[in-house]
Amino acid sequence: MAQNPLVQPTPHEASHASNETTKLNPLVPTCHPNKPHHAKGLCKSCYKNRAAYARYVPKEPKRYCPKGHDIRIVGRLKDAYCKACARKAANSRSYGAKLKRAYGIDAEQYQKMLANQNGVCAICFCPEVVLTKKGIPRRLSVDHDHKTGKVRSLLCAACNYALGTIKENATIARSMGNYIDYWNRILGEYAHG
């Protein structure tokens, strides 16, 4: 576009036209390259009045579904997808998929283990008492060896938590059992004596 020699550019326009290379350097303001950078690609005075200089602040480009669909994504997360892909992703995160991914078993194997244990915890022989947000009992947790990754059995939330708290140390578990037995005997003597 030819410049009209009679119309002088404003200092602001001249600074933008003369210094195209400053757009590559994030420490040089896009508004006034000769002034020090303050924030968001602007000098201090323009940053304070950024509503007036909003045209100089680069806008975030539209993001589209990374799966190649020609639909703008939903959400602001890095892994956001279009609605169709989000639905598929939610289905793949179902409990059966989680079992397969985390423990190498499928939902059918989980149900067989649950039936073999009569629907109760393998340690305390009680059903799960912790409820979900909907008010139904949670599923029993899959207990596995953290070193080998092999699945052992299904536990209630309390036993699973206790096992994790003692770091699966059998010596500590036996010591806890002895401690409880000892105090039950002592307190039992006082109750009956």
Large-scale geometry:
elongated
Structural class: mainly alpha
Name of the CATH first level of the largest domain: Alpha Beta
Described by strand count, sense and barrel closure, the largest sheet is: 2 strands, antiparallel
Give structural notes:
There is one protein chain. A hairpin with a 6-residue loop joins strand 1 and strand 2. Strands 1-2 form a two-stranded antiparallel ribbon. The protein is mostly helical. It starts with 10 loop residues before the first helix and ends with a helix. The protein folds into three domains: 11-56, no CATH class; 61-93, no CATH class; 94-193, His-Me finger endonucleases (His-Me finger endonuclease fold, 3-Layer(aba) Sandwich). The longest helix has 23 residues, at 170-192. The chain has helices at residues 11-18, 44-48, 83-92, 95-103, 107-116, 157-165, 170-192, and strands at 141-144, 151-155. Residues 18-23 have low confidence and may be disordered.
Question: Which descriptors would you attach to this protein?
Answer:
His-Me finger endonuclease fold, about 190 residues, 3 domains, elongated, mainly alpha, two-stranded antiparallel ribbon
How would you summarize this macromolecular structure in one to three sentences?
This protein has helices spanning 11-18, 44-48, 83-92, 95-103, 107-116, 157-165, 170-192; strands spanning 141-144, 151-155. It is mainly alpha-helical and 193 residues long.
